[in-house]
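Chapter review: from sequence to fold.
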Amino acid sequence: MDNKLFREYQFKFYLNAGHSISLQGQKGETHPHTWEFLVVILIRRENFREYHIYEKAIETYFAKYQNSVLNDIEPFDTIVPTLENIVDFFGQSIRRIIRSLEGILCRIEGSETPTRRYSITYEEESDYLEEIERFSEKSVSEILDLLLDAMLE
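The token string follows.
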């Protein structure tokens, strides 16, 4: 995608939290991780936002999970906290946060070790494409308004 109407930002977050996994009916040992999350967002080019606005919002979201055992916190008290389930859940939550800050979540990646990474890309989903279209139309409309105002002056 030609990215002239948008700016792409990437953020990394770290979450220190433990979890245990049940396999074949047997609960495994609770063990710690330093989870790493990469969040990629798009922002309309003319909507300058300082990095810290997004960082603060996502750090605040992660705060309730920091230094905890994920199995003890909703929804992981009923959903097995595998890397995939964690990234799926966090992705949906972070997507709402980014949207409230007038951005679009493109991708989230999570890893529990340096060699294990799980990634979700939203770029093919219909609501993502609808957001891009809405943002693009708004950007083009604002550019045309500015041009018309300049011509009339």
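Two observations follow directly from the output. The first helix runs from residue 51 to 63. DSSP finds three helices and seven strands in the chain.
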